[in-house]
Amino acid sequence: MSNVEISPDHGKPVLSARNVVKHYGGVRALKGVDFDIYPGTVTTLFGENGAGKSTLMKILSGVEQPTDGELILDDESVRFASTVEAQERGISIIHQELSLAPNLSVRDNIFMGRELRRAAGVDYAEEARQAAALMTALEEDIDPLTRVADLRVGQQQIVEIARALSVDARILIMDEPTSALSANEVQVLFKVIRDLTARGVAIVYISHHLEEALEITHHAVVLRDGSMTAKAERADIDLAWIVRNMVGENFDLGSPPTGHQFGDTALSVQSLTVPDASNLARAAVDRLSLDVRAGEVVCIYGLMGAGRTELLEALAGASHSSGGQVLLEGRDITYLDIAQRIAAGLVLVPEDRQRDGLVQTMSVGRNLSLASIGSFVRNMLLSRSGERGIVDDSIRDVRVKTDGPAAMIGSLSGGNQQKVVIGKMMTTHPRVLLLDEPSRGIDIGAKAEVFRLLAQRAAQGVAVVFSTSEVNECLSIAHRVIVMGRGHIVAEFGPDASKEQIMAASGESVAA
């Protein structure tokens, strides 16, 4: 049930796009799109990765300029040459991929480029006060002077939201604002959105979390292959309507792979303890033990701060443990580094693909071959034919939609970038595959493909462990669901568990 007041009469649009076209070389990203934004309402934009959603939002916020078409703001034809011009007219955007400066503080990131000044210079005290007030409004206990690099991805997402809220915007565009947030944090954001719309702010909301988006929207628009395919009021929208107009058929995330027997224990975690990087006096993972068998798919669910990411990073060797053991097929790998664990057969697909999973200045092919580069080096020379074979096989295997191996990684949609990260790790032929939030920021079609890949690898005998903050994903391909809380395993369920059981075990409130 929606918690927003629905009215089909939204009045006059505050901002409209008329017949907007955008070309990137020979690619038509937008094909004559009409789009209206109304004051005091939430307009939700649905579509698969590559449908043109982010391109349209970049045009509306001054990041990009249209190849053709017109923007109309307050009955006036406008063309924004930059985001600064758009902000001056009251338009602000939260981008899908985090755009923070990790070496700067939370305060400095929020006010970067529009510092508060007084006669003596920048008023850092007032910036810190306003940053603290924004953190309070978002119910997040983050010190404004904390360096962004020291925050978890979800907390960085909160800072990104705070930066957009700090601008007194009439139109606020939110491109995947909840991709790294827990369910409780999403509800806090929704409270903020309702407060903003009550004050007349127009919200454009993009999300691949379909059921979540239905809770907040007033009306919806669907883009597909650069064209608008449908629009409707909230009263006329359900999940089936969204999926049908996005992808043309109902998708599900699959079911636990069957038809194969589990093998011996592939991964054994024994009393593992991982210190909390932000507070060394406490443990992010506290004496945790877990066994995963070959061919088994295990989902780790928990709220932010439960220790999911810290556990997976410690297992992969990306962070240090302070106690316990990690065994891979009976071999103690506790003291091996990341490269040695990859060589031994344990790999991690990280939560932040932009920062930790991809090299943005490299091509699709080079990104795919990075993890397995040692396998095609002969006498200190790189075998180009060997690399091409691995890359071509990987593109085909994980179904990356690309112009070819030479295409730059940044030209791919979020879903295809995620498949490149997974494909890169698959080229190492792992025995244990760890994935931290593998569906973050990707659409339902790409999500189904990712889970198909995981199920396929499990059927081939690979032990698969993935973490998620989306309870519906736990009920897809997992043979077993592990619920974490405050660094401990607090519950364990089989594939027949209910959404309510999993959420209740995590300490999360269950929506009626």
UniProtKB/TrEMBL annotation:
Coiled coil: none annotated. The keyword Kinase does not apply. Keywords: ATP-binding, Cell membrane, Membrane, Nucleotide-binding, Repeat, Sugar transport, Translocase, Transport. PROSITE patterns: ABC_TRANSPORTER_1 (PS00211), ABC_TRANSPORTER_2 (PS50893). GO terms for molecular function: ATP binding. Residues 15-250, 267-511 form the ABC transporter domain. PANTHER family: CARBOHYDRATE TRANSPORT ATP-BINDING PROTEIN MG119-RELATED, D-ALLOSE IMPORT ATP-BINDING PROTEIN ALSA-RELATED. This is Sugar ABC transporter ATP-binding protein.
